[in-house]
Amino acid sequence: MKVGTINFLKVVVFIIGIITLCLCIFALPSLADYSANMNPEYAFLELPVLIGIYITAIPFFLALFQALKLINHIKSKNVFSELAVNSLKQIKNNAISIIVLYVIGMFSLAFLNALHPGIAIIGIVIIFATLVVSVFTAVLQELLKSAIIIKSENDLTV
Length: 158
Fold this sequence. Notes:
This protein is mostly helical. It has one domain. About 85% of the residues lie in helices and about 0% in strands. The protein is built from four helices and no strands. It has helices spanning about 5-40, 45-75, 80-110, 115-155. α1 (about 5-40) packs antiparallel against α2 and α2 runs antiparallel to α3 (about 80-110). The longest helix is centred in the last third of the chain and has 41 residues, at about 115-155. The model has no long low-confidence stretch (mean pLDDT about 90).
């Protein structure tokens, strides 16, 4: 892979991380405060929902870190290794943990009769997007494992 492409991927991952961090720091608290003011009957949920979203941001940032490690493996031409497989496994596990946390949060809000349809749609979109990421990384992980096995067999026959 060309150096320009690798640097572009790194910049994109950093931009995604910075935008998400800025949203978590600046936009989410004001949005939670606005929602609590608009719906005072659900104001008691402001802090738990905000903390829940912050908890789901942790695996997201861990997955971004693993993506950076995977890009570094590609840069060092060490992509056909167990390190790359482990990075993909960590990304998959982080995506699954995000799915689980959002499902738990949505069921909790539904149990309290506080699940607004707009929030439910956003939660479902996030769940399906992370499900796509999880399935894609699982497939990529299995393909990489197979490629490593084939590469090791080819190295032994030469």
